[in-house]
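During the practical work, I worked with a single protein chain and the tokens that describe its fold, as given directly below.
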Amino acid sequence: MPWILGGCGCLTLIILIVAFIMFGVYRTSKKVSEISSQIRTAAQPKAGWSTYVNVKEKLPADLQPNFVAFSFDYPNSFDVQPQGKINFVKVEKSAPAGKGNTAENFAVGYAWFTPPDAQSDALYDKLLDDLGQQLARTFHNYKELKRTSETVDGVRSKAALFQADFNDAAKTMIFGKTIVVHPPGKKNGVSMLLLGTSLSRDIKSADDLGVKGESADILRSFRFL
């Protein structure tokens, strides 16, 4: 009889332990499921927006050695432009006058940092100088206005604000902002170009870029992967 009672007691204890473990596994599994659901929800763009993810295999061969993994959301009022040889991607919003009349655009290219583990204002300024020289050859009456600190996806960076025009009779103004970002642990980073024109309803000066307009929301959604 004592052995029988003892066996029953042990069996009851084992059942309780197993039940406790199963309950713990259930709670953990439920918590993981809830967290995964939250991540999936957070990763989904809001209604009327799409997500661009930079994929190395989808880039031209010349751009693949400079690949940086990132994503951003953009509204359906922006169109992805044909792939070029300099930028990973460019999305553009047309003015009410129709296609061919730019209101805003947002482009992401690559930027080499030498040495790759360096983080300094001098290095950022050198890259912004180089970008400024390229833009001066592209835009009529290019003029840099100022440089400011910037934070992109939590990464400290630096930006240059500028203005130019289309060299047309109406003197359509171009407002621009270039940003260079070097994510920690990456051998190279990205350069971003935000543009707005006087045809935009929201962008009235270079100071508005990254603050107003839909291109500002695109910049805020940018994430390194």
User: Anything to note?
Assistant: The helical segments are 2-43, 121-138, 214-221. Residues 1-6, 10-23, 28-42 have pLDDT under 50 and may be disordered.
